[in-house]
Every structure is written in structure tokens, then in C-alpha cells.
Design a protein that fits this description.
The chain is mostly helical and about 300 residues long. The protein has one domain. The chain has 14 helices and two strands. A two-stranded antiparallel ribbon has the order 1-2. The radius of gyration is 19 Å and the shape is globular.
């Protein structure tokens, strides 16, 4: 089935579910899984396609979230405007980080991206307008369209954003940008010698990756009705954003989707049945298993199975 048909069916299914009498918790959990899809997809554009491991994910998520908060406080902007603005600000941050750090490689690049998180967290913690270190409580708007509750409307919006994120990743993978990024990942010096504009494609990847991570963060203040720096800039986002593409496979746009569905669903099941404290254990165990037994992720396992069955 074609990608666009599946995407349309996913959006229509989300709308139908939101209009149904389903339990409200389903939409809270669904938001987390959909956010995971966007996080994994955004991270993979730079970390998977180009091989530049970005540990600064919480910084981009935080920029998206606090941009949305600022617009809500200043002008009461609707959710879609908050998301677009959060994506734009995170894209600009991605460009800035790329200009400053992309000449670094390996662990040096990763360390530099972590520094961005602490800098942004310090800025927000010292901003009284954004709630400072104690955070700020929010009241959700009454505008829920036809969906009855804000959570249901948010679920539909996140479904749409997840489809957009996957569409962007699919386009990048099949475009000259994706070809250039894969060349950078395999041998950057050789790519430069072959005429690939390595800096240009890496900066584009930084901007696109940052924008998608900002999209993942922008709806958070209204989802939680509360926001504060310690949880918003939590390095846990960096770990799960890295883990999901590794579990699904970093070589294809569908890999982060598979990893996010597996990890996000498992975490929600564990949270409901056992304890939310075990979420980190689930991430750790799955990472170890896939790094050791299936370094190419689920996609790699499927390819091996197809090869062996011929």
C-alpha cells in the first residue's frame, strides 16, 4: 500500500477514535507514543543518515516547548501556531549549533551538543517570564474543535505531525540530501573529494532535525498543563531518541517508526501494569539486546530473514 494512502488512513483513524467514546487514558498514552515517533524520526535525520550522534535532543525539545509557552502567554496563540513557531525556532537553533559544531566529529560533536542543553536550561531557569526554576501552571484553552476534550484534539494533532515528520524523513532519504548524508556517514573525506557539499547537507540536516524535535516539544506545555526546566531539558529525551532508531534501524525512514512503536508501547504497558520507574530499565535492556544481537535493528533482522529464506 502506498505511503500516502497509509498516512491518510492513519489520520482518519485518529479522528474517528477521538470522536468515539474511548477511554481518555488512551489519548494520553497515544500522545507519548506519537511524540516518540517524531523524536526518533527527527534524531535519525542527523544521527542515522549522517552518523552525527546528537545528545542535545532535550535542548531542541525545550526550545519548542518554551517557544509555544511564550506565544501562549503573550498572545494566546492557537496550538498549530505554537507548533509551527516551535519548529522554526528549533530549526534556527539547529543551524546555529551546526555552524558552531559540525567541524567537530565523533565524541567531540556529541559533547558539544550536550553543552547546548545546559546553556538553554540555565537561560530558562533565570527567566521569570517563563516560570524560572519552579515552572508555571497553565490553563488549557476551551477550543477543542469537535473532539470534546483538549487531550483528544491534541492526539489528532500529534498524529498529523507524526505523518508530516515521516513524510519529511522519507523525502530526505530519497533526495540528494539523503545521498549526501549517507556519503558523509560512510566516509566524509571521500565524499568531499567526490564533490559532495558536505557542510551544506549537514547544515540542512541540522535544521530539519532540529525542527522536528521542536515539533515534538511544542505541544508539551498544554499536554501536561505545566512546564518546568528540569523535566523539559531532561537527558532522558536524548537516550530514548537515540534508542528508538537503533532498535528499529537507522538506515531507513521506517526504522525510527518501528523502534518508537516498540519502545513507546512497551513503556506505556510497563507504566500501567508495573511502575513508571521501570521505563529506564526497558530502554536499557532493549538497547543492549539490539546493539549486541541486531546492530542493524529490526530492519536488519528482516533483511537477513529474507536473504536466508531465498
Amino acid at each position: 500500500m502506498k505511503f500516502w494512502i497509509v498516512s491518510a488512513l492513519a489520520i482518519l483513524s485518529a479522528v474517528a477514535l477521538a470522536l468515539s467514546g474511548a477511554n481518555e487514558y488512551l489519548f494520553f498514552a497515544g500522545f507519548v507514543v506519537l511524540q516518540a515517533i517524531i523524536l526518533a524520526t527527527g534524531w535519525n535525520i542527523l544521527g542515522g543518515y549522517a552518523g552525527y550522534v546528537n545528545f542535545g535532543v532535550p535542548g531542541f525539545v525545550g526550545v519548542g516547548a518554551y517557544t509555544a509557552l511564550a506565544l501562549h502567554l503573550l498572545v494566546g496563540a492557537p496550538l498549530i501556531v505554537q507548533i509551527v513557531a516551535g519548529a522554526a525556532m528549533a530549526a534556527l537553533l539547529g543551524l546555529a549549533v551546526g555552524v558552531l559544531t559540525l567541524r567537530l566529529r565523533g565524541i567531540f560533536f556529541s559533547i558539544a551538543t550536550i553543552a547546548v542543553v545546559f546553556i538553554l536550561e540555565a537561560v530558562v531557569m533565570n527567566s521569570r517570564f517563563l516560570g524560572g526554576a519552579t515552572g508555571i501552571q497553565l490553563t488549557r484553552p476551551d477550543d477543542v474543535w469537535l473532539f470534546g476534550t483538549y487531550t483528544r484534539m491534541l492526539f489528532v494533532m500529534m498524529t498529523l505531525m507524526a505523518v508530516v515528520a515521516l513524510s519529511v524523513a522519507r523525502y530526505v532519504q530519497n533526495s540528494y540530501i539523503g545521498q549526501g548524508l549517507r556519503a558523509v556517514r560512510d566516509a566524509e573525506e571521500a565524499a568531499e573529494c567526490s564533490g559532495v557539499p558536505t557542510l551544506k547537507v549537514k547544515l540542512i540536516a541540522c535544521a530539519i532535525s532540529g525542527a522536528l524535535l521542536g515539533v515534538a516539544g511544542a505541544p508539551m506545555p498544554m499536554y501536561l498543563s505545566y512546564i518546568e526546566p528540569l523535566s523539559t531539558f531532561n537527558l532522558h529525551y536524548a537516550v530514548i531518541a537515540l534508542a528508538m532508531p537503533i532498535i528499529g534501524g537507522t538506515s531507513h525512514w521506517i526504522g525510527p517508526l518501528i523502534g518508537a512503536l516498540i519502545l513507546g508501547t512497551l513503556q506505556q504497558i510497563v507504566t500501567v501494569t508495573i511502575s513508571s520507574e521501570l521505563n529506564v530499565l526497558v530502554v536499557g535492556v532493549l538497547l543492549v539486546v539490539f546493539v549486541v544481537a541486531a546492530p542493524d535493528g529490526v530492519i536488519g533482522l528482516v533483511k537477513k530473514w529474507k536473504t536466508s529464506s531465498k
